[in-house]
DNA sequence: CTATAACTATGTTTTAAAACATACAAAGTT
DNA sequence: AACTTTGTATGTTTTAAAACATAGTTATAG
C-alpha cells in the first residue's frame, strides 16, 4: 500500500510485470534494448489531448493525473494512475489522437516502448495481448461504473466515493489512515464532478461528521463505513 | 445506413468481419462448427448485470440496448449497439460478472462463441486479438467522451448530442431525415442522463425551434447544424 | 370491448448545485 | 519586507433540473 517503493531504487522496465513477465527470454532481451526511460517531475505534461501517441507508455513509479477538458475550461479527471501500469494506450491502439491529457502528480519514471516495438512483441506474444485486453476491460469497467456515479449521485455521495476510490488506488500511508495522495481541492472537485467550492464545503461537513480530518491537502479517513454509507445513499 | 439488411436474409457468423475475416480457412472452419446462433425478439434479455459471461456474443443483426441500473432504479443506457459487433465482451475478458444488462430493442440474431473456443482462436490468431483491442479502444474512447458530456453539458446539449450519437449509430431511414431508431421518451432520457419529463419537454422545444419533428417515437431531424450547435454550446 | 397499464404531455413547486462575492492564509517572487 | 499569486473557506444569490401533480393518449390484456 505504501508509496515508498520508488524511493528505494529506481524501477526498470522489468518492474512492469504485465509487460515483461509474459515475454520469452528472447523477447525480454529485445525489449530491454528497445525502450527508453523517461523521468518526469511534478506538473510536467506527459502527453496532451490532440497529440498523436508514439508508443506504449508504462508507469514505473510515480503518480499521474489523466484528465479531459470539458465545457468552459472545466476539467474532468478521468483517472488517477500509478505504477506499474499503462497510460495513453487507448489512443495508440485506436489509431487516434489522445482524447485526454496526462500530467505528473508525483515524480515519475516512465518507460516508452515505440509503436513498432510493442506491435512486434504483440504479434509474437499472445499473453501480452491478453494482458493489454485485460487492462482495457478493467478500465472500461471502471469508466462505466464512474459514469453512473458521477451523473446520478449527489455531491456528498460523489465526494465520498471519490475518496474511497483514491484509497483503493493509492492506499494509506504507514499510519493506516492518511490517504496516499495529496490532491488540491480543485483536483478533488475535478475528480468528483463538482466545483471547488462544493468540494471544500462538503469536505468540511465530512470533518464535522467525524468521517475524516483535513490538514491542508492531507486527508485522514477516520470512518470508512460512514463514507461507504454516504457513497451508497448520497 | 439503412436497417433493411437484416430483413433480406438472415446473417451468419461470416457477417462479423472483425471476427471472421481475420481467421485462416482452418480457423474459420473450426468457428463455423463451434458456435451457436441465437434469435431474440423485442424486449428479451440477452444478459443481466451480475451474471457470468459464458462466451463472446456477436450481434449479426438487430438493435440492442445496454444499460446499468443506477441509484433509485434510474437506469443509465451506456450503449446502443447494432451489428456487426461484440457485446458483453468486457466482462468476459475482465473475468468478471456483467456490470450492465443487454436487452433486445429490435429482433436480433446473435452468435455465441463459447469462452474456450474464442480463447483458442485468440491464442492462435493475433489479428483477432488486435480487432478485439480495437473494439475496446473505441468503446473506451466513447465512454470517456460521453462521461464529460453527460456530467457537464446542460439538458439541451445532452439531448442534442444523444440524438446526433443515435444518428451516427443507426443512421437515417430512406428519407434521409427519420432517425433509424425508435426510442421511448424514457429510453431517450436514460441515454441522456435526464428524467423522462425533461426529455419530453426538451424535445418539444426542439420541435418549436424547428430542429426536428416528432410523431410518437418517430423523430425526423430537420436541422443537423442547429443540433450540433446546441450540443456544443448547451 | 372494456379495463388497465404504459407512455406522452405540460404546468407547478422544490431543491440541489452552480455562480458569484469576499476574505484570509500560505507560498513564491522581486 | 512588500507584493503577487494560488489555494482554501464561507456566505449569498441564482438557476437548472428534479420532483410532484394531473391529464390525455395509446397500447395491451383479460
From TrEMBL, chains A, B:
Segments traversing the membrane: none
PROSITE patterns in the cross-refs: CNMP_BINDING_3 (PS50042), HTH_CRP_2 (PS51063)
GO MF: DNA binding; DNA-binding transcription factor activity
GO cellular component, one term: cytosol
Keywords: DNA-binding, Transcription, Transcription regulation
Pfam assignment, any one: HTH_Crp_2
Record carries keyword Lyase: no
Origin superkingdom: Bacteria
Protein name as it appears in the record: Crp/Fnr family transcriptional regulator
Organism, scientific name: Marinilabilia rubra
Amino acid at each position: 500500500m505504501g508509496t515508498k517503493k520508488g524511493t528505494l531504487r529506481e524501477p526498470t522496465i522489468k518492474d512492469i510485470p504485465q509487460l515483461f513477465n509474459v515475454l520469452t527470454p528472447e523477447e525480454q532481451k529485445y525489449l530491454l534494448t528497445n525502450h527508453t526511460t523517461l523521468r518526469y517531475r511534478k506538473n510536467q505534461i506527459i502527453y496532451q489531448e490532440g497529440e498523436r501517441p508514439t508508443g506504449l507508455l508504462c508507469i514505473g513509479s510515480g503518480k499521474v493525473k489523466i484528465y479531459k477538458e470539458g465545457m468552459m475550461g472545466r476539467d474532468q479527471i478521468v483517472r488517477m494512475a500509478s505504477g506499474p501500469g499503462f497510460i495513453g494506450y487507448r489512443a495508440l491502439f485506436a489509431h487516434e489522437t489522445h482524447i485526454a491529457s496526462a500530467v505528473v502528480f508525483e515524480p515519475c519514471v516512465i518507460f516508452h516502448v515505440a509503436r513498432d516495438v510493442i506491435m512486434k512483441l504483440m504479434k509474437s506474444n499472445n499473453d501480452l495481448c491478453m494482458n493489454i485486453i485485460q487492462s482495457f476491460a478493467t478500465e472500461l469497467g471502471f469508466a462505466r461504473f464512474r459514469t453512473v456515479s458521477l451523473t446520478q449521485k449527489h455531491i456528498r455521495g460523489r465526494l465520498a466515493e471519490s475518496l474511497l476510490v483514491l484509497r483503493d488506488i493509492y492506499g494509506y500511508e504507514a499510519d493506516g489512515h492518511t490517504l496516499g495522495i495529496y490532491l488540491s481541492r480543485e483536483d478533488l472537485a475535478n475528480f468528483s464532478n463538482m466545483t471547488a467550492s462544493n468540494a471544500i464545503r462538503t469536505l468540511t461537513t465530512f470533518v464535522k461528521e467525524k468521517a475524516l480530518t483535513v490538514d491542508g491537502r492531507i486527508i485522514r479517513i477516520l470512518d470508512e463505513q460512514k463514507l461507504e454509507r454516504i457513497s451508497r445513499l448520497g
